[in-house]
Amino acid sequence: MSQEQFFRERVIEFVNRSWSVADPAALDTLGELVAPGVRFTIGSRAEVSTLAQFQALVRQIKVGQPDLDYRMVDMVVQGNLIAYRLIVTGTHLGMFAGVYPPTGRRLTLSAMVQVRLDEQGCLVEAWQEGDFLGVLAQVGAIPPTGTGPLGQVLHSARTSWRLARAGR
Amino acid sequence: MQDLGQRARWITDQLFNLGNLDAARTCAPDFLGHLPDYPDAHGPDGLAEFVRGLRTSFPDFGHKVHVSVWEGDQVFLRSSLTGTQRGEFLGIPPTNLPVLMSEMLWLRFDADGRLAELWRETNPVAALDQIGVVPPDGVGPAGRFGHTLKTVARLAALTARQQLAQRRSA
Q1: Residue B138: pLDDT band with limits 50, 70, 90
Q2: Which of A35, A55, A137, A160 fits a disulfide with B144 by CB distance 3.0 to 4.6 angstroms?
Q3: Residues 6+ apart with CB under 8 A from B46
Q4: Coiled coil: which residue ranges (chain B) (predicted)?
């Protein structure tokens, strides 16, 4: 097996262990696939940087969408750098992002991830960007883009009220 | 084989940094851009329209590529964007505030080396935060509501100023 093929399989394994809801315990074994001091950088979640914080984020997302499904769409490998696109879907049945109460809506997040591996094929760093704003619109937390500033702010006022009633 | 990593850097530099819309002519006639927060871009004109819109929101737009990953006919770019919001952005009137956004691009080239498809992911929530639209993290509903009221007033003033400026230049 070529090194690139080995790296490819390690990353697919990382994604499967992270996102599978059929085998939730796999998330706790991610330490086997990452280098000590691995660093995560997620555009929409500035607070996430360690493995433990990444695992907590995935757990929180699975609470919001217990039937979570994920699909790796494309992958490119060049040396020890790997990038892939990810589509994550699920029904909004629990608190989304720990904040937004269930709507029963089907949520879809498109994302891109880029990782760097060491020679053993362990993750050294991972960078992720996703259409988090689009998901916020799907849960009704913000209006769809193009509503204009007034619609945007009025909506924000309504959302504040809704969250207040939801007991936040 | 043509170095598509270089090609990807060239086209993004021409479009985003230099605002050279003619560079959009080099993409495939059936080009398709998947751009969250913006309509899908169709063909060279669609791509040019998207770039024009971004550079109207941020005339001093800066696009810096940090990492590229190239394999076969696809190139991934991780980049950061800077700019001063001097035009409307996601429905928000000009605030003249600086923003810094992280971005990822995925480019697919056709057999002739033309850009055929583009996917983009970025972090507009950070930008909305930087221009003061998103309430600070950790404030309760009352704080959110207060922030919203202040934002309504601020955006109304900015919109009025923008309309006045437009009328003057008309």
Answers
A1: low
A2: A160
A3: B31, B33, B40
A4: none
The minimal CB distance from A156 to the residues B37, B92, B148 is found for: B148
- Judge if ipTM > 0.85: yes
Residues 6+ apart with CB under 8 A from B100: B80, B81, B82, B126, B130
CA B162 vs. chain centroid, Å, equals 21
- Please name each of the domains of chain A with its CATH number: 3-140 (3.10.450.50)
Q: Does A80 touch chain B (CB under 8 A)?
A: no
Name every residue whose Cβ is closer than 8 Å to that of residue A155 and which is 6 or more positions away in sequence: A142, A143, A147
Res. A33: pLDDT tops 80: yes
**Which chain A residues touch B122 with a CB distance below 8 Å?**
43, 129
